[in-house]
Automatic annotation (TrEMBL):
Glycoprotein is among the record's keywords: no
Keyword check for Lyase: yes
Gene3D superfamilies in the cross-refs: 2-enoyl-CoA Hydratase, Chain A, domain 1, Lyase 2-enoyl-coa Hydratase, Chain A, domain 2
Reactions it catalyzes: a 4-saturated-(3S)-3-hydroxyacyl-CoA = a (3E)-enoyl-CoA + H2O; a (3S)-3-hydroxyacyl-CoA = a (2E)-enoyl-CoA + H2O
Family annotation (PROSITE patterns): ENOYL_COA_HYDRATASE
Protein keywords: Lyase
Alphabetical list of CDD domains matching this protein: crotonase-like
Family stated for the protein in its record: Belongs to the enoyl-CoA hydratase/isomerase family.
The protein, known as: Enoyl-CoA hydratase-related protein
Length: 271
């Protein structure tokens, strides 16, 4: 294992990045506020993922986690929202959507590691990641209607894609919370773990497998999966063909094919 390093992001102590070789861990560190997403935190997270994107193939995977053990993210910062004008509400929603777009644009896969509550904006943040791992102590929900609001960071878009339209409507309209059993049953959570240590170890194991593969191919696959989801079949098929074509432009594709034919392990360079 390589040495772990820690960086504060954009001068914010609420968001930090830890590095273990090619694997980065982005930590939302506001445990007293249950890691609530204030505009400042949304901005710091977008800057963190932007910085990781700038490293290119040096980053092979990202773990997103909340500090404290009680919550991944309990939602938006309600104390700040209480005094917002409609224009400020719109601006905050745009920050949430900008963050989700930065996460989805990152070529490396991002695993949301949920330990505790992922509610409202917290669930929306997790949905922007490639998939969700969670502990047995986790709970999920979109309770915005109980505050007279609706999901504002992409919940009405990504939750139906994750669990189907009818289930998403039921959760959003009712505002009810679900536990880990139901979250796994409906496909919201990909894998469950007994505790935080096992959760993070499982995420690192998965990203270790990803890191053995060609970085450009993983990035192209993510690009197609993100952009094609929800589009008509003909459009999605065209996006896949473009991605397949672009793979032939990479050195790693030629190395991977040559290694297969020569019955040896490939030596990928990320180019």
């Amino acid at each position: 294992m390589t040495e772990t390093t820690t960086d504060d992001t954009a001068g914010s102590t609420d968001v930090r990045i830890e590095r273990d070789g090619a694997i980065a861990t982005v930590i939302i560190d506001r445990p007293k506020a249950l890691n609530a997403l204030s505009p400042a935190v949304l901005t710091a997270l977008a800057e963190a993922f932007g910085a990781l994107a700038a490293e290119g193939a040096a980053v092979r995977g990202v773990i997103l986690v909340g500090a404290g053990g009680r919550a991944f993210v309990a939602g938006a910062d309600i104390r700040e929202l209480a005094g917002f004008t409609p224009e400020q509400g719109e601006a905050t929603a745009l920050l949430g959507h900008r963050l989700a777009a930065v996460i989805e644009a990152l070529p490396a896969p991002v695993i949301a590691c949920v330990d505790g509550f992922a509610l409202g904006g917290g669930l929306e943040l997790a949905l922007a990641c490639d998939f969700i791992y969670a502990t047995d102590a986790s709970g999920f929900g979109q309770p915005e209607v109980r505050l007279g609001l609706i999901p504002g960071f992409g919940g009405t878009v990504r939750l139906p894609r994750a669990i189907g339209l009818a289930r998403a409507k039921e959760l959003i309209y009712s505002g009810r919370r679900i536990g880990i059993d139901e979250a796994v049953e409906i496909g919201l959570v990909v894998r469950r773990f007994p505790d935080r240590d096992a959760l993070l170890a499982g995420a690192r194991e998965t990203l270790g497998l990803v890191a053995q593969n060609a970085a450009p191919a993983v990035g192209l696959a993510k690009r197609v999966l993100v952009t094609a989801t929800g589009t008509p079949t003909a459009t999605a098929s065209g996006l896949e063909v473009e991605g397949f074509r672009d793979a032939f432009r990479t050195d790693d594709m030629h190395e991977g094919v040559a290694a297969f034919l020569e019955k040896r392990e490939p030596v990928f360079t990320g180019s």
